[in-house]
Amino acid sequence: MASENQKDWMASGSDLMRRAMQNRRLIPDVPHLKPIIDALPAGAVVCEVGCGPGGITLDIAQQYPELTVLGMDIDDESIKLARDAAEKAGTKNVRYAQGDACNLDKLVEVEGFEALDGGCDLVYSHAAIMHTNNQLAAISHMRHASKAHGTISLHEGDMGLFFAYPENPGVKRWLETFPVLGLSKGADPYLGRKLVSLVLAAGYAHGQIKGVSMAAQMQWRPQVKPGLVMGFGQIIKTSELEEEDKKLIVEGLEEWSKCEDSIVSFPGVIVTAVKEA
Ligand SMILES: C[S@@+](CC[C@H](N)C(=O)[O-])C[C@H]1O[C@@H](n2cnc3c(N)ncnc32)[C@H](O)[C@@H]1O
């Protein structure tokens, strides 16, 4: 199980966060995976590590009925939501299991997850490994789950280019404290820059790293801002920050969200590696 600490920093700490994650899709959230998935043969196995409530996995399963899609996450509630959504949609080629990415091999014993023993064509993460307490173990397990010539793809955040505009004192405080809060909760908000190093440490040779790129989601549409403010407001309100800081940040975010020209960045790094036989 995720510790309560890990759960409440951008992971799966609330129904609000889970609902937001259930709306994620292959496009626009992980477009870098599309060419990899398009090239997979029928019968290939794709696994998302830290799939949350399964928005992306269900979308892939529905768009590629000839593939088997596996999703795993440490949060039982997210797995329940993912299973319910797949059942409701009548999608049969997706399976979910609760487990820890740092002990991914334990899931090999779960029915339908045998491919995690070196049989997956694509194993990917999206904003999940940063929340685990042993990133190297998680990436090493992803490598083990991948078959020879299989791909691992990691898209993890790096708050180094976290900015918002226009700034006010509350937004400024949010930008300063939010990554620090993540660190204090056991997450690594600066994981993106370390991915190449970790992928090498996990056993990939330099030549097996096929791509390293920056990715940044920009939020600027008026319709998403109230949800963002509510989600971040909730994380801030339940944090250990001083009451004065909480008030300043929540009010600052509300003021920011009402500006027609306001934007915020959610930066990350994408690393793709292929295991050679
Ligand atoms: C920000 S969410 C991303 C969910 C999903 N990948 C997506 O993009 O919609 C991070 C997810 O990582 C999961 N997580 C955190 N630590 C984990 C671990 N040790 N093993 C598996 N999943 C974990 C959380 O429960 C959460 O669902």
Description:
This protein is an alpha/beta fold and 277 residues long. Helices cover 38% and strands 22% of the residues. It is built from 11 helices and 8 strands. Strands 1, 2, 3, 4, 5, 6, 7 and 8 form an 8-stranded mixed beta sheet that branches. Strand 1, helix 5 and strand 2 (68-73) form a beta-alpha-beta unit. The protein starts with a helix and ends with a strand. Mean pLDDT is 93; it is low at 1-6. S-adenosylmethionine (SAM) is lined by residues 2, 6, 10-12, 21, 24, 50-52, 55-56, 73-75, 78, 100-102, 126-128, 131-132. Residues 43-158 form the Methyltransferase domain. Pfam families: Methyltransf_31. This is Methyltransferase domain-containing protein.
